[in-house]
């Protein structure tokens, strides 16, 4: 039986909200924002969802992961009975759809082609998403405080960050990695929660920035490919928020070296 919903919430809205918890592992954006949800239909407790991707040759691992996560998110809704998620127009659509229908799992779906399970892949992209979210917050902080020394970023805590989408995104990425979310927790840490000595921070921030630029660039490219492949799909894409202005680290104040101080 369908769960009771608030007057302002339809069953389709609840399905779409559940799908909004599923992210493209490489682009670190919800599949609903990217326009990857082609259609959805609800018939009582039964749900049918069709997904689409920017190209027919997108990574089968990524494609399966998103489709599988979408099915899991919908099965978790208390009122669903039969959930069918199908991937359209991919070179492995038949294989992936059959595996999802049989609940075969990744290895059961791809058999000898699956050299590993998806846990390692998920962890890799969780770490990248965390690095990118951390860089966004710290770059925004440098922009707001141009006199701040980049080496001081190691002392910044979650409580020092202003409220907003970037901070909330960072908190979610930290939670996914099991990192502390207390206001006193340092922001500039690796995926294990270990901080960096001050002299390493500029390099670590550059690396995190490279990761963020790669993610953002790929997301922009894939959005364009989807619009080209499926005319009109731009109506299903959520515009991205403005990124913090680029702050060259060479223009940020750093602590002079001993040699510079004595020269």
Report what the structure shows:
It is built from 9 helices and 5 strands. It has helices at residues 11-19, 31-34, 60-75, 93-101, 105-110, 119-144, 165-177, 201-229, 258-262; strands at residues 23-24, 29-30, 37-43, 46-51, 82-87. The strands form 2 sheets. It has a 3-stranded mixed β-sheet with strand order 3-4-5. A hairpin with a 4-residue loop joins strand 1 (23-24) and strand 2. The longest helix is centred in the last third of the chain and has 29 residues, at 201-229. It is elongated, with a radius of gyration of 21 Å.
Number of DSSP helical runs = 9
Could you give the order of the helices and strands?
Answer: HEEHEEHEHHHHHH
Total strand segments = 5
Strand line-up in the sheet with most strands: 3-4-5
User: In terms of structural class, how would the helical and strand content be classed?
Assistant: mainly alpha
Unreliable stretches covering 5 or more consecutive residues: 1-8, 242-248
Distance between the termini: 78 Å
Q: How much of the sequence is in beta strands?
A: 5-15%
Major β-sheet profile = 3 strands, mixed
Shape: elongated
Mean pLDDT: 89
Q: Considering DSSP H and I runs of 4 or more, what fraction of the residues is helical? A: 40-55%
Radius of gyration: 21 Å
């Amino acid at each position: 039986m369908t769960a009771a919903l608030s007057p302002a919430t339809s069953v389709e809205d609840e399905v779409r909200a559940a799908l909004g918890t599923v992210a493209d592992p490489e682009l670190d954006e919800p599949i609903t924002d990217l326009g990857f949800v082609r259609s959805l239909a609800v018939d009582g407790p039964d749900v049918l969802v069709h997904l689409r991707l920017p190209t027919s040759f997108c990574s089968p691992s990524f494609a399966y992961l998103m489709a599988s996560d979408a099915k899991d998110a919908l099965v978790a809704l208390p009122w669903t009975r039969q959930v069918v998620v199908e991937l359209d127009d991919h070179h492995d659509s038949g294989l992936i759809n059959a595996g999802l229908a049989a609940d075969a799992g990744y290895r059961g779906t791809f058999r000898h082609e699956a050299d590993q399970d998806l846990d390692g892949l998920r962890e890799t992209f969780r770490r990248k998403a965390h690095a990118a979210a951390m860089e966004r917050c710290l770059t925004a902080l440098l922009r707001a405080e141009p006199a701040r020394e980049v080496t001081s970023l190691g002392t910044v805590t979650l409580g020092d960050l202003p409220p907003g989408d970037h901070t909330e995104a960072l908190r979610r990425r930290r939670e996914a990695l099991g990192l502390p979310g207390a206001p006193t927790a340092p922001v500039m840490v690796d995926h294990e929660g270990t901080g960096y000595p001050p002299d390493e921070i500029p390099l670590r921030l550059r690396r995190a920035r490279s990761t963020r630029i790669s993610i953002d660039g790929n997301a922009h490219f894939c959005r364009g490919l989807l619009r080209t492949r499926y005319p009109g799909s731009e109506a299903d894409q959520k515009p991205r928020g403005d990124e913090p202005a680029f702050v060259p680290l060479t223009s940020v104040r750093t602590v002079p070296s001993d040699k510079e101080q004595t020269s």
